[in-house]
């Protein structure tokens, strides 16, 4: 308790959210003297609030717009993450940033649910002509991937995927929906198609501190948390068969439906068992279609839009 109080009374900034700060204050409040409370700094000048993911995306896109403006092939192309704006110039490209750990629902990290909402908003906006998925992520949470994939498959506007750094596991689950999938450099990592769970068991550590876990279950609740308890106890069979395997089958079915090279691949191929590859090898096995710079990818996406319109015109006049 004294340690927490000394932290709160410190004049040095804390790398902590406002919620975390309030929890610390509530923890020590019953033990504080009035003089201690008077010394607490004002919250606004004390805690650290992480930036929202959307704000970080806006900042990143600002730099990318300058890059596009410096290239002759892309200087006239508009790109945005303001998907609801009906006053955008015609043929604006929707920019979707998939960076860092993938979560199902978050304001501070990438959110699969938010991406779905953004995709649908961009799809509804007549000023937006295509979707660019810009990915640098080693994966994350599997929850909501099935719903997000349904939405990606339903889109009518062209999608292009550009990996810059890493596109693995859940990130590839998303990225495989691009009509074309590219990496930026020869050193990008692509793949890791597979499903796993990982966490730490702190119970032995708590026990060493004298902290004992007390637990009781109702007579008719004998299976409550049993699967997780077996997993922790080194008996993962049920968890693998009833949780990991079904999720993995959905994952495999999705990537094979989106990538022709993977559809015809033997199910025992390393690509479908979680192997990860550098760019050249990833292209050889069919995970990606090659390499492009960011301006090259944007220019190609715009050419897809033009090609779609030409094909539509031809079909309408046959």
Describe the structure.
- Helices cover 44% and strands 14% of the residues.
- By secondary structure, it is of the alpha/beta class.
- The chain folds into 3 domains: 2-45, no CATH class; 53-196 and 245-314, 2-enoyl-CoA Hydratase, Chain A, domain 1 (Alpha-Beta Complex), CATH 3.90.226.10; 203-237, no CATH class.
- Strands 1, 2, 5, 6, 7, 8 and 9 form a 7-stranded mixed beta sheet that branches. Strands 3-4 form a two-stranded parallel sheet.
- Helix 6 links the parallel strand 5 and strand 6.
- The protein is globular.
- The end-to-end span amounts to 79 Å
Mean pLDDT: 90
Beta strands, count = 9
Strand content: 5-15%
CATH fold node name of the largest domain: 2-enoyl-CoA Hydratase, Chain A, domain 1
- The number of distinct structural domains comes to 3
Question: Helix and strand layout, with pairings?
Answer:
Blueprint: H1 2-9, H2 18-28, H3 34-39, H4 53-69, E1 79-80, E2 92-99, E3 102-103, E4 110-111, H5 112-124, E5 128-137, H6 145-154, E6 159-168, H7 170-175, E7 180-183, E8 189-191, H8 203-208, H9 226-232, H10 237-258, H11 260-263, E9 276-278, H12 279-284, H13 294-316
Parallel strand pairs: 1-2, 2-5, 3-4, 5-6, 6-7, 6-8
Antiparallel strand pairs: 8-9
Short description, anyone?
The chain is of the alpha/beta class and 318 residues long. It has helices spanning 2-9, 18-28, 34-39, 53-69, 112-124, 145-154, 170-175, 203-208, 226-232, 237-258, 260-263, 279-284, 294-316, and strands spanning 79-80, 92-99, 102-103, 110-111, 128-137, 159-168, 180-183, 189-191, 276-278.
């Amino acid at each position: 308790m004294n340690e927490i109080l000394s932290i709160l009374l410190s004049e040095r900034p804390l790398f902590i959210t406002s919620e975390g700060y309030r929890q610390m204050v509530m923890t020590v409040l019953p033990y504080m003297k009035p003089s201690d409370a008077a010394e607490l700094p004002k919250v606004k000048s004390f805690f650290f609030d992480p930036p929202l993911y959307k704000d970080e995306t806006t900042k990143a896109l600002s730099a990318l717009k300058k890059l596009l403006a410096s290239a002759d092939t892309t200087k006239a192309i508009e790109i945005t993450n303001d998907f609801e704006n009906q006053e955008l110039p015609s043929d604006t490209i929707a920019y979707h940033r998939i960076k860092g750990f993938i979560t199902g629902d978050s304001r501070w990290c990438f959110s699969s649910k938010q991406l779905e909402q953004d995709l649908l908003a961009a799809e509804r906006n007549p000023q937006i002509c295509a979707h660019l998925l810009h990915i640098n992520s080693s994966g994350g949470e599997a929850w909501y991937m099935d719903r997000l994939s349904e939405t990606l498959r339903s889109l009518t506007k062209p999608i292009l995927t550009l990996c810059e750094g890493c596109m693995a596991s859940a990130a590839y689950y998303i990225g495989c929906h691009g009509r074309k999938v590219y990496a930026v450099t020869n050193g990008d990592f692509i793949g890791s198609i597979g499903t796993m769970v990982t966490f730490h068991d702190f119970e032995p550590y708590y026990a060493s501190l004298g902290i004992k876990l007390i637990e009781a279950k109702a007579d008719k609740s004998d299976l409550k948390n049993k699967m997780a308890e077996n997993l922790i106890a080194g008996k993962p069979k049920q968890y693998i068969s009833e949780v990991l395997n079904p999720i993995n089958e959905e994952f495999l079915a999705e990537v094979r439906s989106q990538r022709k090279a993977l559809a015809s691949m033997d199910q025992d191929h390393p690509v479908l068992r979680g192997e990860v590859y550098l760019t050249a090898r990833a292209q050889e096995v069919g995970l990606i279609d090659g390499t492009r710079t960011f301006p090259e990818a944007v220019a190609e996406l715009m050419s897809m839009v033009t090609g779609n319109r030409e094909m539509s015109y031809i079909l309408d006049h046959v």
